[in-house]
Specification:
The complex is a heterodimer of chains A (476) and B (1040). Chain A contains 19 helices and nine strands. Chain A has 476 residues and is mainly alpha-helical. In chain A, helix 2 packs antiparallel against helix 5, helix 8 packs parallel to helix 15 and helix 9 packs antiparallel against helix 15. Classes of the chains: A mainly alpha (476), B mainly beta (1040). Chains A and B meet through strand 1, helix 2, helix 5, helix 11 and helix 19 of A and helix 3, strand 26, strand 30, strand 31 and helix 10 of B. Strand 1 of chain A pairs antiparallel with strand 30 of chain B, so a sheet runs across the interface.
Chain lengths: 476, 1040
């Protein structure tokens, strides 16, 4: 008779069932892969049409940078970040969007790491699941620290993040902010652990599953920020091994489906893509999709950067020139890089990491003295986009060229804000026709490298609920 | 020896009262009246007093006379009905013996109101009941709260019990014309018997039944009327000249703030440079016949005096209509000496005052009770309803979608935008697809043939067109069957078992057209089906015994309840042709799924009532509930109540006051109930499994199953506890005035909270029973028969309630919880506003100023930066949305055949945050402004409280006390006038009676600001929801 009052839902499963076997535990891991692009992702309701996981954070990074021009209209969900307003408001949705997203990844990884050893199944399976969880945890802390504190170099002892490495229960105590150094130590130790567990590239069913190449790719990004040039170069080179750069035609095909250059991407079904519809990356980027960009929230490259792309470079064709703009009644320099194939479906996969970035990391590290030839590395990449390319021989000119190529090659892929932090350049938004309109930016055109405006506020909800925090823990 | 006495019993309208009992006082001799109210009774010579009783009327004693002339007894209803039988939990009681607090609403009151959903007939009817207006969507209901607010994170809605069983169907499926009475159970005495579900009070709905021994009666009621908008629209800028000039100034000032000189900015705004001027900024719409760059003077900002208007469309007018409401009801009732029956059928069709919103309902009921043998009684009450509703999903959730919410769009859209498309020569055209005038869809790029430009407000949309071509609708089926068997044995014992089941199905359709707008060339559709199967099965044994002056009744029983919900949904897009909305033909899957929920409750219940000499009453109840919502160690709980009443007026020492004091009763009760209705903050999604820790496995990675951490375990989680104390007096004076005064406290503890976890734990909250809240209040009800004559009666009633709500405990380490524009804090109420404190406008530059604590000097100063203010103590408590007083005034007047009545409802005190007005004061390009924008600051020295216009400055119109308004209102809720033809005339024509009437609902609302809807929600926030309706109906009621 006791059973009469025991009832259970049909769309949820108890954790002990999930971690009974390694096969079940894959459910927890694949849930994380899906969480990267799920809608709604962080908030409970579906009203926030910029709540779609990792790619919204990529857009945030570019909106807050120098090279993406935004319009100040209601359909632009990112306009308050463009003005550096909501990132500074601890009760606004945006700081929550970033903070909660990464911490949910971390807790899911922690749950896997806490329970996987007890699951029944082959050790190889356990290693793979565990290794992927380590990569996620490292990647998430790395994503967070770049929004809520200045870069590693010179700020090692600054307050970093609360670090949790246990699966949260209702009695788990709150954590105080560890230092930046401690956060990076956690990140590199997780990545070291992951590299011991994950084999190299090529063993995965699809590229939403993380493997050794992705682990190394994340490591390369981290090492670059830590100015560990040798490590960055090595990791980047090893990470891209086995991947082929996109051809010019692949590059121009719309950045929507995986190809040989992509190292890590989503694995969304067409039905899931369609379910995201206007709350998705393509909705906010692609003018041909029936979403926000199509409704007028255009995303454009600055004229300043556009003019630096030479004619004949395939990457120049990915932004509307005067002719295209007139024909389509869109602003000049509107982006055409990220495009869906057809307006009848939202089907797409989302890019998280590709080999081109690894070339740029390697070249930059080499230009700073890591072993290898920076010029050759850079030319190998850029020539595949612009065959006539030659890189400067060395020195500051080479470094500046690498930084420029990074802006061109990775435009719209989410590196602007984090590079402003990493390179300590501050914000320098060009104005004038085709560039940023001062009113639309809320007057935010220049920020010093050490301006507190470059930091996201910690969400008020965290300030309130975290018992280890005092008001002094809030970012300036 | 005896004498025959002949007589007739009449009601206050002069109609015969059938089935009234006539008894010779002090004896067992008696009879009942026939269908016309006639009786003949042999009265023993030694007796002269007749006692006349009839349900719905007060008891009456008359002198029998010597029998030589016909006796006429006029019974009066309502205020004299002290001895009414009242439906309470698991049975009925006589009002005189009830120790608790309850409000009764009779069928008479309900029938007056031309409402579709009975929840809309309750406003202002009984003290202690707060009702929202429920909006104007045909077929929608209102929200109810009894005695304040019982919960924060669980439901605060009362339990609805229909004919004895908790009701899980759609309340709109219950035909208000079928309702015999509604009892509102407010205190512990009755609600404790609903255990874990009783904490928010209980609304007991009892449907009509026939009367034993009554001749068949056929009643036909037909009412037809019109539905119009009850609340006027806000005062807004509705002429093109004023709009262009205001928008120009808004634009220019924004450019000046961006660094331009005033002169340069004026030239840009007027379109004299290569940058977009005001016309281009507004999407290329120029309503005048002058070139775009000559429309506005770049220096003065005034419209070119040579300009004449080319066209003008009124969005409001195009979207609205006068709706027609038709409501036809037929019922047949009667009974033999063993069986009574009631059959009814009704058809209702209501058109909303916004085009394309409709509701219709076809409904039938059968209620039969039969005394099968002298010890066995059986009954079945069954009803079925089929209904259809067409609505707008965006008005249901109040979302601000220009293409989907007619209220939002027509309120906000700038007057310069045409509804209908015009060509360059200003001619309209016919759209071949619809055969009607071509609409302007305003997306020049994607839909150039249907676009005169691209509005910044709602580009690619035309609300009139999408309302016609899109669809949000549902078909509902609701079947309810309540059956019982009742056996009496061993003289004092009764055993009753009842089985009540209900089935509810809602089949929803949502479709977005493929011709224009967001789903251009694609179309999108989704279907969902929601099935609810629920039943209550109980077995109840009662022992009743009277000896000397003692009367004892003891009841004990057992009950099972099961609720099962099954949902299926699917969405597809890319339809081949317009018009067909079924999914099979659409090419692309957008998501599908299904879900099941199951809830069970098992209960043991008991009650004991005792009274002595109809003077002293005691009652006690006890219930033990086990709920599937909680872990097995925490799921069982005990709920109880005790109550007592003392009818002082029955005491011998009060005999001297008999001539003026009819009744005086003192009562007191105390008890405990539970609230297990865990619900999402949005009030929509219940939580059936909140105690458990789960992975949510709806996170498939493509084709691979996936799940993420969804919740944390709390095995100790249990229902909220409510402790209710009630005391009061009831009185009757001069045989004319009745009333009651009650005081209550309702303390909720173990409040369920989504206790926030630091987000750095990866989990945002956990459920815990932490927190307490208390509601305290006073309720007064007065009813007076001012005039009571054969041909003229006049009755006035008043009810007033006052309560306070206070949070007394919150989760530890969480001294405040911000919920929208409220902040929960110990010592404050659940609905206390917490807002920036507006300090007015800086006369020097037109900045909006807000008070804050300047961190530099620690002083309270003003700043023009809303974020700085918000982060530095700028937000303050600014009053509560809870009114100080609320209630209703009703009056009815009968003169010969005429009857007239009205009902007023009111709220005094309390605040309303008029977010709609705030939007109209902070409009962007394409949206219009409130007329109050005329009071804006324009030049140094202007003293006003409306800041300057400036595009892109969020500080000028931040949410603050500036938009907080008094919520006081007076609503003329209903006015009815009827005429009943003389019965003599009618009986010649073969009718029993014929009444013609006119009734008007929501005749007028008086509030602080035109357009404001202070009764829309309890939390005092405005929403872009379906505005309330005024319904005017003409009806005829014929009895055969």
């Amino acid at each position: 008779q006791k059973k009469y009052l025991d009832t259970n839902p049909t769309d949820k499963i108890a954790p002990d069932v999930i971690f009974e076997t390694t096969q079940n535990a894959r459910v927890a891991l694949n849930g994380m892969h899906r969480f990267m692009n799920t809608v709604p992702c962080v908030f409970a309701n579906t009203d926030n049409h910029y709540d779609f996981g990792e790619k919204t954070i990529d857009i945030i990074s570019d909106v807050m940078g120098n090279d993406m021009v935004n319009l100040d209209i209601g359909y632009n969900w990112y306009r308050w970040l463009y003005k550096y307003q909501n990132s500074r408001n601890p009760t606004a949705g945006e700081p929550i969007l970033v903070w909660n997203f990464y911490y949910k990844i971390i807790n899911n990884a922690n749950n896997i790491l806490a329970h996987i050893d007890g699951a029944q199944g082959a050790q190889a399976d356990k290693d793979d699941i565990k290794g992927q969880a380590y990569v996620y945890r490292a990647w998430a802390y790395f994503g967070l620290i770049q929004f809520y504190q200045f870069t590693y170099k010179g700020h090692e002892s600054a307050p970093g993040l609360p670090i949790s490495t246990v699966a949260t229960t209702s009695t788990t105590p709150s954590n105080k902010r560890s230092t930046v150094q401690e956060v990076y130590t956690q990140i590199t130790s997780d990545l070291d652990a992951a590299l011991l567990l994950l084999p190299g590239g090529g063993l995965r069913g699809d590229k939403s599953q993380l493997d050794g190449s992705v682990a190394k790719g994340v490591y390369a990004r981290v090492a670059l920020v830590m100015n560990d040039w040798e490590k960055a170069a090595t990791m980047a080179r090893e990470a891209r091994t086995g991947y082929k750069l996109m051809s010019a035609s692949e590059y121009g095909a719309g950045f929507k489906l995986t190809n040989n250059e992509w190292m890590w991407n989503s694995n969304i079904s067409e039905e899931q893509s369609n379910g995201m519809n206007i709350s998705s990356f393509f909705s906010h980027m692609d003018i041909t999709a029936a979403g926000y960009a199509g409704a007028g929230a255009f995303r454009c490259i600055t004229k300043e950067l556009y003019d630096k792309i030479p004619d004949g470079d395939v990457r120049k064709t990915l932004f509307a020139d005067e002719e295209t703009a007139t024909a389509n009644e869109i602003p000049e320099y509107t982006q055409l890089k990220f495009r869906l194939e057809s307006t009848s479906s939202w089907f797409s996969n989302l890019l998280y990491m590709r080999a081109g970035e690894m070339y740029l990391i390697e070249a930059e590290a080499q230009a700073h003295g890591a072993s290898g030839n920076a010029v050759a590395t850079l030319e190998e990449l850029v020539k595949s986009r612009f065959p006539a390319y030659t890189a400067p021989a060395g020195g500051q000119a080479l470094l500046d060229e690498i930084y420029l190529q990074r802006r061109i090659e990775l435009w719209g892929e989410g590196f602007s804000f984090t590079d402003i932090h990493r390179l300590k350049t501050g914000l320098n938004r060009p104005t004038g026709p085709g560039n940023h309109e001062p009113a639309a930016t809320g007057g935010v055109l220049k920020l010093d490298a050490n301006s507190p405006s470059l930091l996201f506020k910690i969400p008020q909800s965290e300030m309130d609920a975290n018992k280890a925090f005092t008001a002094a823990d809030q970012n300036p | 020896q005896s004498r025959p006495v002949k007589g007739q019993v009449l009601d206050d309208r002069g109609e015969g009262v059938p089935g009234a009992s006539i008894q010779v006082k002090g004896t067992k001799t008696g009879t009942i009246t026939d269908a016309e109210g006639n009786f003949i009774l042999d009265v023993p010579d030694e007796s002269n007093v007749l006692l006349i009783k009839s349900v719905g009327f007060g008891d009456k004693e008359v002198s029998a006379g010597d029998g030589d002339k016909q006796l006429v007894v006029t019974m009066s209803s309502s205020s004299q009905a002290l001895d009414d039988v009242m439906v309470v939990a698991y049975g009925t009681t006589r009002k005189e013996s009830y120790t608790g607090s309850a409000g009764v609403i009779t069928s008479k009151q309900i029938e007056k109101m031309p409402v579709t959903d009975v929840t809309k007939a309750l406003e202002g009817s009984v003290p202690g009941l707060q009702v929202t207006n429920g909006g104007g969507q045909p077929g929608s209901g209102a929200a109810l709260r009894i005695r304040g607010f019982g919960s924060i994170n669980a439901s605060s809605s009362p339990l609805i019990v229909l004919d004895g069983a908790p009701y899980d169907g759609d309340i709109t499926s219950i035909n208000p014309m079928d309702i015999g009475s509604i009892t509102l159970l407010k205190d512990a005495t009755a609600t404790s018997l609903y255990g874990a579900r009783g904490a928010n009070g209980v609304l007991m709905i009892t449907t009509k039944k026939g009367k034993k021994g009554e001749k068949p009666q056929i009643s036909v009621d037909a009412r037809v009327g019109i539905v119009t908008r009850a609340l006027p629209e806000y005062d807004r800028v509705t002429d093109e000249k004023q709009y262009y000039e205001t928008a120009w100034e808004y634009y220019r000032n924004g450019l000046v703030a961006g660094g331009m000189t005033k002169e340069q900015a004026g030239r840009v705004a007027s379109g004299l440079t290569t940058s977009p001027g005001i016309v281009r900024a507004l999407g290329g719409y120029n309503s005048y016949n002058v070139p775009d760059n000559q429309l506005i003077d770049p220096v003065t900002g005034k419209l070119n005096p040579a300009a004449t208007l080319k066209y003008h469309d009124d969005w409001q007018k195009e979207l609205m209509r006068t709706g027609v409401r038709q409501d036809y009801n037929l019922n047949v009732s009667g009974g033999s000496d063993k069986t009574d029956y009631f059959f009814s059928a009704g058809y209702l069709k209501e058109q909303g005052f916004i085009k394309y919103s409709n509701y219709d309902r076809l409904q039938a009921r059968m209620n039969v009770n039969s005394q099968v043998t002298d010890w066995l009684k059986a009954g079945l009450n069954m009803s079925g309803a089929l209904s259809n509703q067409r609505y707008f999903s965006n008005t249901e959730d109040g979302s601000t979608a220009p293409g989907g919410n007619p209220f939002y769009t027509s309120r906000m859209i700038a007057p310069i935008y045409p509804v209908y498309w015009r060509d360059s020569l200003n001619r309209m055209a016919i759209d071949p697809a619809t055969g009607e005038n071509k609409l302007d869809w305003s997306d020049a790029k994607k839909d150039p043939d249907f676009s005169m430009g691209t509005r910044p407000f709602g580009p690619g949309s035309n609300i009139l067109g999408s309302m016609a071509m899109d669809d949000d609708s549902r078909k509902m089926t609701n079947v309810t069957a309540n059956s019982y068997l009742e056996a009496t044995f061993l003289k004092d014992f009764t055993f009753r078992t009842s089985l009540s089941g209900s089935y509810y199905n809602s089949n929803s359709n949502s479709y977005r057209n493929m011709l224009h707008g967001q789903f251009l060339n694609k179309g999108a559709g989704s279907k969902s089906t929601n099935n609810i199967y629920s039943y209550t099965f109980n077995q109840i044994l009662t022992w009743q015994h009277a000896f000397d002056k003692h009367h004892v009744e003891i009841m004990a029983g057992h009950e099972n309840y099961q609720f099962q919900q099954k949902m299926v949904f699917a969405s597809r897009s890319n339809f081949p042709v317009p018009g067909i909305q079924d999914l099979s033909i659409a090419t692309t899957a957008d998501g599908s799924g299904s879900e099941t929920n199951l809830q069970r409750i098992e209960s043991y219940l008991s009650r004991a009532n005792y009274d002595y000499d109809s003077k002293y009453y005691l009652s006690a109840s006890f219930r033990r509930d086990g709920s599937s919502r909680f872990y097995r160690d925490a799921r069982w709980g005990n709920f109880w109540s005790v109550g007592g009443a003392w009818r002082i007026s029955q005491e011998r020492f009060m005999a001297g006051s008999k001539n003026w004091l009819d009744d005086l009763k003192l009562k007191v009760s105390y008890g405990e109930q539970g609230n297990d209705a865990l619900i999402d903050r949005d009030g929509l999604s219940p939580f059936y499994y909140a105690w458990q820790s789960f992975y949510d496995v709806t996170y498939a990675n493509g084709q691979i199953p996936g799940g993420v951490v969804a919740s944390l375990e709390n095995k100790a989680l249990r229902w909220e506890t409510s402790k209710n104390f009630n005391t009061g007096i009831e009185f009757g004076l001069f045989n004319r005035i009745t009333g009651s005064i009650e005081y209550f406290t309702k303390g909720s503890s173990n409040l369920l909270f989504q206790v926030p976890m630091p987000a750095s734990s990866g989990v945002t909250y956990r459920w815990q029973n932490i927190g307490s809240m208390v509601n305290k209040g006073i309720e007064v009800q007065l009813n007076a028969d001012v005039v009571r004559q054969r041909n003229l009666t006049w009755n006035v009633g008043l009810n007033v309630s006052h309560f306070t709500n206070e949070i007394t405990k919150l989760p530890p380490d969480q001294d405040k919880i911000i919920v929208g524009n409220k902040q929960l804090m110990v010592g404050k109420s659940i609905y206390d506003f917490f807002l920036l404190d507006y300090a007015g406008v800086d006369p020097g530059n037109g900045d909006a100023l807000y008070y804050y604590d300047n961190p530099a000097n620690g002083k309270r100063e003003t700043t023009n930066d809303a974020i700085v203010a918000r982060n530095n103590g700028g937000r303050v408590y600014a009053g509560s949305s809870i009114p100080d007083l609320y209630g209703g005034i009703n009056s009815s007047l009968n003169y010969k055949g005429f009857d007239f009545s009205f009902l007023l409802s009111f709220g005094l005190g309390g605040k309303f945050y008029d977010g709609t007005y705030a939007s109209l004061m902070s409009s962007d390009f394409g949206q219009t402004w409130s007329k109050d924008i005329e009071k804006r600051w324009q030049q140094p020295g202007d003293v006003t409280d409306v800041p300057r216009l400036e595009r892109g400055n969020v500080n000028l119109n931040a949410a603050s006390t500036r938009f907080l308004t008094s919520a006081s209102y007076l609503n003329i809720r209903n006015v009815s006038l009827g005429y009943t033809l003389p019965s003599k005339l009618m009986s010649r024509a073969g009718f029993k009676s014929l009444r013609a009437y006119v009734s008007c609902d929501n005749l007028w609302l008086f509030s602080k600001r035109k357009g404001m809807d202070p009764q829309g929600a309890f939390d005092g926030n405005a929403a872009y929801s379906y505005s309330p309706v005024r319904t005017l109906v003409f009806g005829v009621n014929v009895k055969l």
